[in-house]
Amino acid sequence: MEVAEILIDGKWQPAEAEASFHAENPATGEVLPIAFPVSRWSDCDRALSAAATAAAQLRNTAPERIASFLEAYANNIESASAAIVAAAHEETALPVSPRLKDVELPRTTNQLRQAAAAAREESWKRATLDTEKNIRSVFAPIGPVVVFGPNNFPFAFNGVSGGDFAAAIAAGNPVIAKAHPLHPNTTRLLAEEARKAAAECGLAAGTVQMIYNISNENGLKLVSDSRVGAIGFTGSRSAGLHLKRAAEETGKPIYLELSSINPVIFLPGALADEGERLARELVDSCLAGAGQFCTSPNLILLWDSPESEHLLADVAKAFSERPSQHLLSSAGQKHIQEGVAALIDAKAKVMTGGAPIDGAGYRYANTLLRATATQFIDQPHALQREVFGNVTMAVTVSDRVELKEILAQLEGNLTGSIYSAKSGADDDIYAAIEPVLRRKVGRLLNDKMPTGVAVSPAMNHGGPFPATSHPGFTSVGIPASLTRFAALQCYDGVREDRLPAILRKAISNPQTWRSIDGAWVRG
Amino acid sequence: MEVAEILIDGKWQPAEAEASFHAENPATGEVLPIAFPVSRWSDCDRALSAAATAAAQLRNTAPERIASFLEAYANNIESASAAIVAAAHEETALPVSPRLKDVELPRTTNQLRQAAAAAREESWKRATLDTEKNIRSVFAPIGPVVVFGPNNFPFAFNGVSGGDFAAAIAAGNPVIAKAHPLHPNTTRLLAEEARKAAAECGLAAGTVQMIYNISNENGLKLVSDSRVGAIGFTGSRSAGLHLKRAAEETGKPIYLELSSINPVIFLPGALADEGERLARELVDSCLAGAGQFCTSPNLILLWDSPESEHLLADVAKAFSERPSQHLLSSAGQKHIQEGVAALIDAKAKVMTGGAPIDGAGYRYANTLLRATATQFIDQPHALQREVFGNVTMAVTVSDRVELKEILAQLEGNLTGSIYSAKSGADDDIYAAIEPVLRRKVGRLLNDKMPTGVAVSPAMNHGGPFPATSHPGFTSVGIPASLTRFAALQCYDGVREDRLPAILRKAISNPQTWRSIDGAWVRG
Fold it and tell me: Is the predicted ipTM greater than 0.95, yes or no?
């Protein structure tokens, strides 16, 4: 049987495979034709050696060349977009348009270009000069970065093209991408565009490498290998926590995005003013991508009131009327079934949905559940279980005390949204609950759904554990995301001509912001 | 038996002790009179509850008030300095002058005042505004910080007065300080000055708390408690790694400074030019504080040459002639004995010293060992064992290939120093070895010993594991050290009047640097 090759040290090479696997078309259940390898450790070892060599070479590579690579790669992706989008559609069942072609692919190339601009500007390095004491410091590449991409964004979070990839490369590190096994062919096509761009730009051969799949055991070994500088992971909580333990045992920084239920709070005045619009906004946000977004609103909090009942009835109706989109996999469908069953066990009631949909491929009925505040407070752990997909739970509260108690019981989340009346009628409740919600979430929104994570320098796609592994970092937002993959390096009394160019008194890069004796200056 | 009280929720209170302990005077071995408690979990629990309350109150406390506290505390320490220095001298045997009175105490108050300035300026929060998308983010307090201070700096790294304390408070967090059990009375006197200053400035009662000692088991429980935001630890590698595992298991950021042997490399030209001066500089650095500094040079690398033999003979002579200072404890003396025995087992040869010194208190002869490059490369693990104290090992190399191999085998270190000829004669060797050393150390020095860690915005007192737990952070250097104790908080579409003042368009604090649409601006 012919098996796809892996990208090692700049070349497509046969894997030393311990097994092979095929992707499926989740819209049909059909097994796709290409066989992909499950690599043995020897493949990881080869990738690590090449990455270590590349890391040393990249330290002497001009930022301009790294930036050119990221731009060339973005251009290549656009040139090959038809094939890439087709492959992703086949492997994920996500709609070609607008999702894959018009939203996610442009987002991905935009991220690569923003990362290129950050690499070129160099301000992310936060060069800091104490000219009196002749002490200077700068963020420098941390070493080879292993990126595990998730199942739900085949381009924008892909290990070989997504935000972690772009940030790690822009910071001057080689990347070993571990493809998500649900979309190996998409990853293969992207990796080929990266390979070509790297070769065109003369980057070190081991700068971009990609393997398709490895055993759990080899995953743990990979993240704790001495040649690794850091790890980026987006995916399930259980897999992430295993990798976290292994990496941290050997002192490796690992940045994980694990789980989030993204509470959305509708305060009474907001519902009274424009309940119908809010219902539509909520439905759109919940069902986008069949709810398979890390920022999908899985928990809705609202007052016991006729307006709330009206909104929930509207939402339930829309959920039942809108077609259920295909899920990414049979495993995803199974996890939803298990998750909904667990919520029902914990006394949540199904308002609509609650069952898989028969027929071709993997679907689950758009599902709305509800529970009372008392129930939630009784079983906060069980009722804040993340169900990754088109499943949302509403919890009604009788007063702000109950709401604050629920918020206090929440684990860390990526986002939290509060809708309140424009008139100011909800302002006192807002003031009372904001401090409790604020410390539970990385991004606090007003009058806005959490889906749609803008690539902005001010974005925080992060949050307290277990949303992520460290509340001080973001995985989206350039240049902030680059710092994750950097080590602080100080030069104390080092002779001027031996300093990195960015730390010399006369700066060669007029775009760079530097902190000199306490003031930020450029040029 | 009367036992000293612990500082909980703004008041000195009796501990619920499971045992008590006494400090010793390490210069005499005399047991000191005051009994101090080993707290049960209930004391930790009380401290955590008060800290959680204080954390919420501190979020609404003006930075000016926090800054005033830090300054008032610095003033109080100066007013009480005679008693504090006397207590520290009694508990540590460190010289009153210049060490405690003229160096460490001023350093400590300087750190507190720099932290006050950073709190007042607020630039450390890195307020970032994307005005077009109305997304804004800022670093905010992470929550209660537990600080474990080390044995070797009773003021400047003390859990209740040192760099981690100053950074955590300046970032707006309450601190639970765990005293080092070798200097409880010093810590008690400092904590009292902090308590008075906090009360004068009207800070939340639980802002500064202090316990003297807890069991290892309660230490692990403390760092993984849900009320804790982050942990700072400076101390031994084995204790630190246990705390690291416990904290990370529950997703708590923990910043550890663990161990470092601080390689110092003398290139041939430098030795030829001024070997005698370098020998003196090295001896001074190695023996400062009886070598009980985290940046003490424990590994000297130099060429096989007559000049090197000359330097080593000079150093050995000075080591044998200079009086051995008292160590901090009998345990420290025992660790040195074990460490030297292990180095000898690994074939290092004693040039001078190598035995404890009889008589009052705890001393160990100033010790110089040596090994060859071949020996080091054969047993890199055994021969880079940190021996915390007045013990240094020299390794001679026959060429740069051997030197690079040794550097490649080093674990992460806080510092690495290279001395080279002013004439440029060593420049090619420097260029060959710098990249290898650079990725192993947090601070690279030229022609300078690593002891003496300036409190500068450009300082990095950090480094790759196991020197610290994350190469992106520094524990010395303000404002950089504050960010460790902060969470990134994003506001997306949040109404202007609900934003923290620092994120509003019209800034109220004219000193603050903010990043607005990609440019750093102030005022």
Answer: yes
